[in-house]
Amino acid sequence: MSMQQRQGLLRTTVLVAGITSVGTLLGFIRDLIIARYFGASGETDAFLIAWTIPETAGPLVMEGSMLLLLMPLFARELEEKGSLREFVGRSLVPITTILLLCTVTIALTAPWLVEALAPGLAMPELATRSVRTTALTVVFLGLCGYTMAALRARHVFGITATVYTAYNIGIIGAILCLQGRLGVYSAAFGVAVGSALMLLVQLPSYLRHIGPPALRLRPDRELLASLVAFVPLSLFTLGRQAQVYIERFLGSSLDPGAISHLNYAAKVGQVPMLLASMVAVVAFPSVARTAVAGRLEDLRRMIHRYARVMAVLILPAMAFLIIAASEMVGVLFERGAFGPADTAATASILRIYALGLLGQTLVNIAVLPLFSIRHLRPTAWYPGRAALAGLVVTLVVSLAALPFLGVQGLAAGNAAGISVLALLLLRGTDKYIGLLDVGAMRAVVLRALLAAGAAAACCFALIQFLAARTAALLALSLGALVMGVLYLAAGRLLGISEIEELIGSARERWRRDRGDALHPPPPVLMYHSIARMDEDLNHVCVSPERFAQQLDWLHRNGLRGVSIRELCQARERGAASRLVGLTFDDGYQDFLTSALPILERYGFTATLFIVAGLLGGENEWDDGPRLPLLNTDELREVRARGIEIGSHGLSHVRLTGLDHATLRREVQDSRELLSGLLGEPVGGFCYPYGSLDVPAIRAVQEAGYAYGCGVKVPSASVSMFSLPRTHVGERDGHLRLTVKRHLYGPYAQTVGRHR
To answer: What's the CA gap between 328 and 592, in Å, rounded?
Structure first.
């Protein structure tokens, strides 16, 4: 994965995480309200048994199995047809019918479900009534998951991140309005209301991006066959969720409030998982489409990168939870009916829960390719088998630890089970698909663990010192700040590359905000043919003599010509102030014979954009004189001499207005062809004639390119996939080049040939 792709992932992840954090904050407020009004008692235990229904339905029919099932199907539909309306029309009715049947079944069997989940519960009647109400969440969450999968397949992430805000608003509103009359049952009613709001908040965006479906009442055989894949997905999801069942089943035999303490600790422990979950959310559409297209090498790099980044981010959070558990729980919950004894019990559980956070993070990443590559059939069942193995570990450890540790033993079983599941999924990913370098992964985890441990050891004493003398919230805030600084410093000393990139990116942003950095767009010069031409009606030729003069001017002004890839990498390091990108469109034979020797004389590199389907041919798209193009052997020689190779399409046609199939062929097939010829992924694309629109840019992104070059690009539209360039011609001497250099931004947007 290129630096630009990682930044795109990071920006989208931060956006989604920012929106989701509002919902998470409201979730905390929800839990604070529940703790204040109802504390940790037999009533809250009864409510939490009912809350098991949406807790199971969420990962099963919304964020988990439903998403894992539908995303590859949606990706394939978009890959083949460019639209989801037909698929939605034939799939929505049967899926809704199944969800309604499940809702009715849960409502009718509520008494038996309560007895099975918590046989020692103090208030089973309240739990049964609450279960019947929360059963409605199955149909609402299922349809919410369906719309989320469709929107995310279209790379619409913002509105789907607002669902948890709607959910918690519904719960909070119901409690505040009805708790005086209904008691804790008001929370169960609010859960049903909130799940309905989750669906309603997405409908306007869904209709705008997907459109109203042409519903088919007759079941679609192809869809029903594909729903068979839901079985292994459900097995995996239920295997993970059953850890909660074990906790509540065994916890129901302990003192009243034990289940509530487990729940409060789990809520705090899940906060660091927000970023990991958002990375998985943002990454999954790209992972699925990469898998559907069969680009296994790209898939390998994506998964390996995601796993390393998330391990580096989650370990300091895990360490901080362990050293600051008492202070965090006290600040969040200790008020009203939630007393100091509840704080101590919840904090002791939280410290043990935190040990399983790395496992939870790696599970979210490692499972993505296993469910995305459907043609490798053993992989579909492997996650389910791994989840069952993790569940067995959870049960055995919980039963063994319960007599000695009490409720903390249940948390130990949870942490052990999820960690074993993560190891099994990583092993399966490597075994079936070969996507992870386990040795490299182990090394980065050990270094990050050492850095986090050193930072936590220093911060523990600081937090204890401050908590005894100031407000706990201030102690936590200062402790978190110091922990972050120490972790980054230790990570740099230990050579963790992800931390180096994070610091470099922050430094670049700070410089950019101060006005010291090179502002986008980056300076890029655009050439075509380096040859003498008496009549050059299209202005594509620069004579070798003039070209040498232009490079000499760059050299004497302290500038160095480089490829786009090198230019972008240097900008991320803040080291691009004396660099200029050099590009050559079309792939003319004279690049090898005329341009390359002059480039090598000055120690310059460049990017050469090739019309992949015309290797060894001529510029047949032009009306002017015919010029020969590089053949395959010549192309390999150019690459061997240090020139970056990019794609200029398959046949040099304008991309604007093309249908989906033709656009995909020009963009993706050209990349695959060139990558196969060169034995390495091609990272750059150049839009023929500078012709680009939103579908063309999206096609370049989805095909796996790191950047795209145009010509005239409005300032508001400049991005890594729409980089403007400055045309350079035969008439450009020293004076004209000086003007273009200093007026680059405006010039790039107003002049230049569309080649």
So the answer is: 65
The length of the chain in residues reads 755
DSSP letters along 299-345, please?
Answer: HHHHHHHHHHHHHHHHHHHHHHHHHTHHHHHHHHH-STT--HHHHHH
Contacts 24+ apart (CB under 8 A), 429-432: 429/303, 429/366, 429/369, 429/370, 432/370, 432/376, 432/378, 432/379, 432/382
φ, ψ of residue 486 in degrees (nearest 5):
-65, -40
CA 56-299-636 angle, 5° bins = 170
Instruction: Let me know the angle formed at the C-alpha of 305 by 650 and 520, rounded to the nearest 5 degrees.
Output: 60
Partners of residue 542 on adjacent β-strands: 530
Tokens of 607: 């990017």
Name the average pLDDT for the chain: 81
Distance of CA 68 to the CA centre of its chain: 14
pTM of the model: 0.57
Q: Which domains does the chain have, with CATH numbers?
A: 22-30+48-219 (no CATH), 524-750 (3.20.20.370)
> What are phi and psi for residue 541, nearest 5 degrees?
-110, 140
Residues in Cβ contact with 365 at an 8 Å cutoff, skipping those fewer than 6 apart: 276, 279, 280, 283, 303, 306, 307, 310
Predicted local confidence at residue 755, as pLDDT: 37
Strands in 601-683 per DSSP E: 607-610, 644-647
Instruction: Look up tokens 């075994």; give the residue.
Output: 431
Higher pLDDT among residues 410 and 515, named by residue: 410
pLDDT tens digits, one per residue of 249-302:
888 788 888 888 888 888 888 777 766 666 655 555 566 656 666 666 666 767
In terms of Cβ atoms closer than 10 Å to its own Cβ (0-12, 13-18, 19+), residue 125 is exposed
